[in-house]
Amino acid sequence: MHVLERAQFDTLLEALQQHGRQVIGPVRRDGVIGYEPVRSAGDLPVGWADEQEAGRYRLHHKDHGRLFDYTAGFHTWKRYLYPPTAVLWQASRDNGRLSFETPSETPPKFALLGVRACELHAIAIQDKVFLDGAHPDPAYAVRRNNAFIIAVNCGRAGGTCFCASMETGPRAQGGYDLALTEVAEDGRHYFTVEAGTKKGERLLDELELREAIEAERAAAAAAVEAAANQMGRQMPVDGLRELLAANPESPRWEAVAKRCLCCANCTMACPTCFCSTVHDSAAMTGETAKRERVWDSCFTMEFSYVHGGSVRKDASSRYRQWMTHKLSSWHDQFGSSGCVGCGRCITWCPVGIDITEEAWLLQEAHGGPTRTGE
Amino acid sequence: MAKKTQGSQRPKLAVWKFSSCDGCQLSLLDCEDELLDVAGAVEIAYFPEATRAVVKGPYDVSLVEGSVSTPEDAQRIQHVRRQSRVLVTIGACATAGGIQALRNFANVEDFTRAVYAMPEHIEALSTSTPISYHVFVDFELRGCPINKTQLVEVIGAFLLGRRPNVPTYSVCVECKRRGSPCVMVAQGIPCLGPVTQAGCGALCPAYNRGCYGCFGPMETPNTAACSAQLQALGMDDPQLTRVYRTFNAWSEAFRRESEIHDA
Amino acid sequence: MGKTITIDPVTRLEGHGKITIHLEEDGSVRESFFHVTQFRGFEKFCEGRPFAEMPSLMARICGICPVSHLIASAKACDALLAVRVSDTGANLRRIMNLAQFVQSHALSFFHLASPDLLLGMDADPASRNIFGVLDAHPSIARDGIRLRKFGQQVIERLGEKRVHPAWIVPGGVSAPLDTKVRELILAELPEMKEIARRTLAWYKKAYRAFEAEIATFANFPSLFMSLASPRGELEFYDGQLRMMDAAGNVIHGNIESNRYHEVIEEAAEPYTYLKFPYYKPMGYPRGFYRVGPLARLNVVEQCGTPEADREFREFQQLQEGAISSSFHYHYARLIEILHSLERMEQLLDDPAILNKRVRAVAEPNNLEGVGVAEAPRGTLIHHYKIDEHGLIEWVNMIIATGHNNMAMNKGVTQVAKHFVQGREIAEGMLNRVEAVIRTFDPCLSCSTHAVGQMPLEIDIMDAQGEVIRRVVRGAP
To answer: What whole-number distance in Å separates Cα of residue C242 and Cα of residue C97?
Structure first.
């Protein structure tokens, strides 16, 4: 374990940029922390912390000068690894002959800065979806394999976080090139740094950082421990997979449908949701055409459209589909839960529907233990 | 550009105007790059904004802008329908009655008296209604104004005989694809995005404004849940009534919700 | 027996209009009218709405010049707030307004009027349109399409959409100018100025072929009104109102915009829903006046930009005193395009345009506010009264096309008297009756803020007022 002083932070960013990488990191904009291009530490949300509740997000400024005091950002990293819109192919007709071409755009080599433990799990889940199957996604593979990941262990848990109960955080356990822990106490401000890959080690060597002393290691460990104890919410994971599979007719679905807007914010905000649809378009003359892939959501009518109409017409069936897939049938399909406990679907639901709350209520409605353990 | 074929072989396109601001049909002239394609691909058979020439009907595709607001409109739309193989309505006036449908909630005479010195000469129906109240409509293109890319898509789709690719889900989908933070969640700004149809590219939230519903209700609008949240953000009943009563006030979902809050 | 000729609708106008011509027993023209016959009711349905919604609601009056309504409405709201918009905020509004002048004037000149000028007033109506111009004079048509696209793109780049953008707000604009947008616009301006120059050069030769039209297209003495800067230069966004007489004398200057009602009053006539504003001291109908490009160039002493000023001095040579033929609206429009491009460049060249302070925030401090700006078609007035809660109590609007109402009616009569002879109605006559209206570039959507659409037809009525023949042109 090494130590990077706060004053040295720009050397890390400079090194990444010298390697031809575009650094994407936390940036404050329009009242939120999003993930956007960063050039120097001055672009980071120095001193900004978020307050998150169901359907509510606010930023507050503090004097502690921390760079990573916010929790889950508004954006997710899938925005960069699996962009919202991508051209799959273009075709043109020349003298009656059709020719197809794949867009030759080369995506930047990203360095993703500030990836949280839950987000590392989310990336791992999307890797499984896009890379492990019989038909790996080449565009995702290029972006993913070229990305350098700098994780940041959480020193604070957000109001809608529940990674501890999903066993996905708050400490990064793998899937990163470098992992940082921010410590700002007793007049000192530094980061402990660990490498998780050879790539990470090489960068550490270049930076020529000193080894951490025992007190620094202890302070970093304590910071992460504190976050684990602050967790705002808890998911009742025991037996949840089976509970959902067994209760497609639960009256709970009608109850949540009264509040659900079917606006699709939860799926758009989720770091693992991966559904897409394709749009074909052709020029008026019929001479050129293209196919684009765009993020889709199981909350739209078209998502379940088959000949004759949509299968999931009402909100109850759509919410049930989303929650059951995320927490139950995801296991059948990909061997893990599809939820990493980041809490974004809770915070960014305009009416504040809480997936943990819904899980508890479903459990209670079907004879399982309540939150108070009865 | 497509080779110009004989006039009679190209599909005939007509553009009709009812009560409206002209902005939607002008979107067609705004398609500068596509205009030449359109001119090559179709025969502009009736488009008084652009030409005096009239090619006799029937027309393959009629674009209809504007709402029905006079007795003469109500007759004319029947005539348009009879001459059109495909009738596409464009814009909030044609698809929902437009902003002038606000008079549907009041006594029209109050309106004419307020505006004209000699109101007895005004021949206005008491309501401004969408075209679909009067005739069968093949496709409704929403928006105040419409999105010109969607217009080109719709014309192209009907010319090529395929279904137009015009999504009916919420503005939120476009907002999140675009990467804009939710103004309701992050800033407590009332926003109609969750109950409004996409199409504008989620323009207002990108400028820290709430959506005000230019594209009308989305496919499955849960206006009751939306209103409950707007109330939690501090809106009272008169404000709720007004928020649903703008350019798509007479669309079913917005009208019903506005009436619930109209004491 | 006399008769009435109706042209319905008048084509190649923005909107929908109708003309009625009444003939005497001997077939000569007695009088003619330009009608606006629909109703939308903006003044009324705004009542009870928060004033801050007004710019967005008012933009919906018109899809051709939404920016003008946004500006006049936002200025009326500024007056309610009693704030002074920062210089950068005001200049950004100006740039969007200038862009709209370019796109709207380009639409009027190239898409709507140029078919008559290039293909002739008597040409086959089947090809006498922008598509026909594309075939016969592709470079001119492409210039027009390019110029309009530029104007629309500037609006889109600033406000993200071309029709009804939401960027202009009470107190200023909602976002500062992006450096990239500034560069993009500046990079395109030289090409646009070149288009404006060559169009002017071509037009100055072309208009000479239209002697009969120049002589009869609403060619009569009248008053002229527009805004002007304190230095007597063209000013589309701010400044004071000036009234000028036919001899070219300023008869009423320095009229503060919030006192417009001291000099302008409106009359109503039964045949149209569009009211008739007139200059109050002279009474109705004697006090009728014209607004728009021709009026502005008659009223100002100079444009205030170098190239436009050179053209302006040449333009002034057309006639001693005020230039009286409405045919020259076209010429004036082209000079204004050049001026708008030059002015836009000046404003963008100033580094202060990138300042971040672009919006003043306040609660309402006045219960009454007036906003006046020059729209492409002429002076636009928005006047609001609010209650203690900021809700609209009363609205009055005078739109550019309204000011020109009387002049258009007189113009139609003048053309009809010259070109209509007896009961035979030639295509060229119908088109000239339309074309005189087209010189004013009336915006019928604006006209119908209260109204909605304006069918234009030629009705032929006998001396007893019975319709003996109706020529409905343009409607299949």
So the answer is: 20
